Amino acid sequence: MKTRMDYFKVAPELMEAVLHMEKTAKGAGLDPLLYELVKTRASQINGCAYCLHMHTADARKLGETEMRLYLLSAWHESSLYTPAERAALAWTEALTLIAERGAPDDVYEELTQHFNDKQIVALTLLINTINTWNRFALGFKSQHPVP
Predict the structure, then answer these.
(1) What is the pLDDT along the chain (147 residues), one digit of tens a residue?
(2) Is residue 11 within 8 Å of residue 144, measured between CB atoms?
(3) Cα–Cα distance between 68 and 74 in angstroms, integer?
């Protein structure tokens, strides 16, 4: 597969907006492991190999286990994730697949049991940011490094 375009090189001034979203989401105080789990799960749903490569590696550097990363796509069936992580992953799926069923009330209500309002806004920004990155990487066929 061949990369279509280096969008950072072509339009760095436009990419600044996405970089600002990323910096803001990362600095919003969410747990760093949760941050990487959310990015990985959205990237799984979107089929973004570039982002999966990046965020699974970042999660491992933070101490995430291989088993939790292996089972992330089946988190509904696994007891390895905390109730807060499960709520965040459900919100991630709802917003990533929003055209399919919207943002259901029960998913939002569960989120409010584990996160305060500011954390919910931060999580929502994070989900939107990774979905934006996925669309750039997929649209321009960004290639992950090959060891």
Answers:
(1) 788 999 889 999 999 999 999 999 999 999 999 999 999 999 999 999 999 999 999 999 999 999 999 999 999 999 999 999 999 999 999 999 999 999 999 999 999 999 999 999 999 999 999 999 999 999 999 888 887
(2) no
(3) 10
- Predicted model pTM: 0.94
Grouping H, G, I as helix, E, B as strand and the rest as coil, residue 53 is helix
Cα–Cα dist 58/61, whole Å: 5
Structural contact between residues 103 and 95, judged by C-beta atoms closer than 8 angstroms: yes
Q: Which two tokens stand for residue 79?
A: 């007891």
- Residues 120 and 56: their CA atoms lie apart, in Å, by 23
For residue 79, give the H/E element and its range.
Answer: none
Q: Please give the Cα distance from 17 to 83 (Å, whole number).
A: 33
Nearest CA to 92 out of 12, 28, 8, 36 is that of 36
Tokens 């569960």 belong to residue = 110
